[in-house]
Every structure is written in structure tokens, then in C-alpha cells.
User: What shape does this take?
Amino acid sequence: MTKGRDMRDMMRRHGITLALFAAAATGLTAVVHSLTRPVIDRQALKQQQQLLDQVIPPGMHDNNMLNSCFLVSDSALGDNDLHRVYLASKGGKTVAAAIESTAPDGYNGAIRLLVGADFAGNVMGVRVTEHHETPGLGDKIDRRVSDWITYFSGKVVHSTEDPFWAVKKDGGGFDQFTGATITPRAVVNAVKRTALYLETLPDKLATLPPCGRNNDE
Assistant: This one.
């Protein structure tokens, strides 16, 4: 009887000890998270700013684009999700925008883009922000792999039927990749659709909801 009671007491003590260790570990994790979160947030904002600078020339605007973030949803952007759009303004006038877009028909799934353009079809820059394309083939859309994506800078979309906006295999002006035509074709089409959508954006500016984040934090 005494032996059984001693065993139960020992198990209870071990249980309490484990619970205390678990509570201490949880508390430590919470402290570390609270200490590192501001650093992580600042680093994320810095990276986003660098990305915006790659698609909209900094000299073109005098505002902080991170603080001019709004949400849009339109099938022209590749899906019906909410996409962030960052407005560039100079002297109080909105002159261009950097907008998230999607090429839904990549070889290995959706390709996420950031497209910078004015409201007259002039593309200033494009960057791929997420993709799952095949290494050595479709991944050439990634700026870290090749400079193919930089070819969009300075190009103009004149209309929905503009023949230039296709890969050369389809009679257009953009190079395809050896053994991988689907990926660049998807990106070219997405950038074209996005630039055309941005031409319609000025009429919608007054009704766009903000992103809902204070980027100064």
C-alpha cells in the first residue's frame, strides 16, 4: 500500500516538474517572439521597399509607397483574390502604381508578380515574387537566375491586341526559354493584362480600401 502511494506521489511530482518546464519553455518562446517581431517586421518592410524600388524608379515619386497601399480584386489580375497596389505620387498627383498580380497558368502552378506601370500602358518594371517553375528551365523568370524579367522595363502595352506582347514563338517580342515556353508565355500575358488593368485604376482610386496596416510600425 505504502509503495503504491509512494509511486503515485513520485509520478505526481514528475508531472508537476514537466508542467513547470513546459510553462517555462512557452514563456521563453513568447518572450523571444516579442523581442524579435519588431526586427522581423522592419526587415520585411525593408525588403518590400527594395522590391518596389525595382519596379517603380524612386525618382519618379516623392511619397512613401508603403504608406499608400490599397486592396483591389479583379479577374484581370489572374484570380479573384485581394491584391495589394502601392501608389506612386509626385507633388500630390498619383502617377503610377506597383501592383501584385498572378499568372495562373505557369507550368507548375501560379506565378506571383509585382508589376510597376503608369496609367497609360508604360511598364516600368516587373519582378517575380513567388513561383514553382522547374529549376534550369522555367526558373529563368527569377531575377536571381537570369535577367529575362528586366526586359519588361520600358515596354508599352498599346492595346489588348498588341502583337508585341507575346513570346517570339507566338510572333511577339519576348524571348522564350529553350525547352520551356509555357512559363514565359504565362508571365508575358499576365504583365500585359495587369498593365491594361492599371489604365482603369485612376477611376477607382477613391473607392479602394486601404491595406489596413500602419507601415511605420
In short: Residues 165 and 189 are 7 Å apart (CA to CA). The radius of gyration is 25 Å.
